[in-house]
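Q: Can I see a sequence and its folded structure?
A: Here is a first one.
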Amino acid sequence: MGKNKVPKERVAEPRRNKAYYPQYRSAIHRIFETFATMKLNKKHLDLLQRTPFWNLFKSFIDKSYDYSKTKKNDDT
């Protein structure tokens, strides 16, 4: 009655004449902007110190983070 259909295997077609540009995604700058606008009290800071990311958060809070030096660059 019913035959079992075997699905056809799809093969990706090569994209000719298209350059591949790797994409790097990061929300670090957004986090920095968020920390710049937040008003943290001592309890907040105590809780943040318990996280493994405290050194990163501290650089945001102290505004010692330089976004221009942390951009991804393929030339290096």
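Q: Show me another, different protein.
A: A second, unrelated one:
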Amino acid sequence: MKTDNSELKKFNTKIITPLIVLFSTSIIAVFSYLKHYPVRDWFMIVFATVVIFLVIGLLTEKMITRFIEINYEKAMSEKAEAERLEEESRAAMEAEANGESGVKTDSLEVKDII
């Protein structure tokens, strides 16, 4: 699967942490509210949930960011390698067209061997 190199860098990872924190905390806040926890306990649960999922979100964001960077570097090296190979093949075709085979051979004859 080929992707455009510019698309690899455009992925916005800054939104991952807030989404994880808001989504997870809202689920736990609603669940603990429906279980009729006292207000003090409810606030402690929500605060602890925010902190825990903030750490999880930051770790997830860092992992995804590093994964994207690795893929970008790999795509750039593949592109550079393809360009190098294309340039080499172009140079070989030009040399062949000019009459140079690029490979020098000795002119051995049968009498030289015997």
